[in-house]
Amino acid sequence: MLYGQANDSSLPEVCKLCIRHKDCFAANITNYNGYSIQIHSHVLQMNEHVFHRGDEQKAIYVVKSGSLKSYISNKKGDEQVLNFHVPGDILSIEGLTQNNHESSAIALQTSTLCVLPIVQLETMLENLLPPWLISFTMKKLNQDIRNQYLLGKRNAKSRLAAFLLEIAADYKAIGYSDREFNLTMSREDIGNYLGIAPETVSRTFTRMQKVGVLKMERRHITILDGEQLGLLAVS
Amino acid sequence: MLYGQANDSSLPEVCKLCIRHKDCFAANITNYNGYSIQIHSHVLQMNEHVFHRGDEQKAIYVVKSGSLKSYISNKKGDEQVLNFHVPGDILSIEGLTQNNHESSAIALQTSTLCVLPIVQLETMLENLLPPWLISFTMKKLNQDIRNQYLLGKRNAKSRLAAFLLEIAADYKAIGYSDREFNLTMSREDIGNYLGIAPETVSRTFTRMQKVGVLKMERRHITILDGEQLGLLAVS
DNA sequence: CGGTAGTTTGAATTTCATCAAAATTTGTGG
DNA sequence: CCACAAATTTTGATGAAATTCAAACTACCG
User: Fold this and answer.
1) Residue A1 forms contact with B (CB below 8 Å)
2) How do residues A91-128 score in pLDDT, each as one tens digit?
3) Nearest residue (CA) to C1' of D16
4) Pairing of strands B214-217, B220-223
5) Are the C-beta atoms of B74 and B80 separated by less than 8 Å?
6) B174-196 burial, b if ≥16 CB within 10 A, otherwise e?
7) Are B177 and B171 in contact (CB under 8 A)?
8) What does the pLDDT look like over B130-189, one tens digit per residue?
9) Mapping DSSP to helix (H, G, I), strand (E, B) and coil, where does residue A125 land?
């Protein structure tokens, strides 16, 4: 179900390490629709990085044993854990069509990875699939990461600030104003989404208005000091 | 119900609504690598559902105007908002290769969607891409939804309970025990990921032990009452 | 065996959820 | 268009939960 079917047992040694080597995808990865992808395995010791944020992305990785975490650092230098990864998980697939890694990944214990160079994968995708399907999938994967980042915040103020900045960025991306817009959802929905009570949403917005960061009239919002709002998001 | 809104001649009209019509996928969607996909546009009024959880999944959707939210309900009947969607967002792509919708989606205001029937898309993917690439991508997309759900919890107890159940499910999926395992990450990492202080993680674990839900020895954990743990996760 | 990192526990403080009620907006029918 | 009802939002008071700072404790490593 989650894995491809294997027929060719002669192929990679790598598969022997795979936690599900009996139906490991690697058995049929070396050749597909005329695209040949050379995979190899890689062993990482505890606290060793698979990749750092900003590194050129050369591969995606499948966890075969051990465990890892992926994280990013905010402007203040604080770390935000995005996810933990156990055998069977795939790392960095969200960057398949991007040049650089958006996050960092580090081994929590000795771990084995299956390394899939992306050059051939990218070519395969670009030739076989319509561009919109690729870009929407990648967009979705990256959006999920941003949400993870958003929801890892400690307090209501940070979450709401990050939430507003997220909405603003969304609107900006489609050519709308990122300083003045309407929230189309209720306070209750916002609170539900962010894991805080609707009353806290209301109070926090009120406080933000008092310090002059933004102006709200019911659901119409004007961001007065975006920089300050950014600081609230990471505080 | 969503079908039949558009016919062939309406295709260009659809593009006019698209917020990015200059590089709108619709321009080349009708034919790609021999696969022809008939798209339609659909207008939803406020509080109208795009789909309900459990509905047969017949399409994926692109938001062209308006806004929506997606959500799921837990066993107690409480709603958990997973995401808000603005123009340019794609809905339900995580279910592309599944039969039924995992979540529900509802319009927050009058909204226009672009409807892409998945039958041809699925066939296209299955024929063109290696199965492991499809399955890993879909797995990742669904995993992110579960994380979103996890982090929407209100208090530390619920989050930690859901977190443990998540890990347990992960281990079970790869054939390990889901009742007894090692947490490979520090309390600090757990707290960082879940948006709570490491001390709170520690205290909450201690409390869970006192009520007999689980047993912990440093990072080795034994789940004694999985049912009770499930109740904590939704409380 | 001592040092270090990670974890637990305690006490004080802050933040948040909850309950309640008031204020405001929205929707509906006359 | 107005009046009334319903829903949403704001505000207040209170108790509960979580953070913070601090210190003690424990496993782990050279």
Assistant:
1) yes
2) 999 999 999 999 999 999 999 888 888 988 899 888 88
3) B155
4) antiparallel
5) yes
6) eeeebeebebbbebebbbbbbbb
7) yes
8) 887 888 899 999 988 989 999 999 899 999 999 999 999 999 988 899 999 999 999 999
9) helix
B139-150: pLDDT as tens digits: 999 988 989 999
Residue B56 or residue A2, greater confidence = B56
Question: How far from B21 is each of B13, B26, B74, B92, CA to CA, in Å?
Answer: 10, 8, 38, 21
B192 → closest Cβ in A137, A152, A171: A152
Residues of A in contact with B63 (CB under 8 A): none
Cα A194 to the chain's mean position, in Å? 17
Q: Which amino acid is at A111?
A: S
Q: Where are the alpha helices (DSSP H) in A1-130?
A: 118-128
Q: Are A123 and B126 in contact (CB under 8 A)?
A: no
Chain D bases closer than 7 A to any CB of the protein: 8-13, 17-22, 27-28
Contacts of A20 (CB under 8 A, 6+ apart): A3, A88, B174, B175
Asked if the C-beta of A86 comes within 8 angstroms of chain B's C-beta atoms, the answer is yes
A152/B194 Cβ within 8 A: yes
Looking at the complex, does the CB of residue A106 fall below 8 Å from at least one CB of chain B?
no
Nucleotide nearest to B186 (CA to C1'): C6
pTM: 0.89
* pLDDT range class, residue A131, cuts 50, 70, 90: confident
pLDDT band at A129 (very low <50, low <70, confident <90, very high): confident
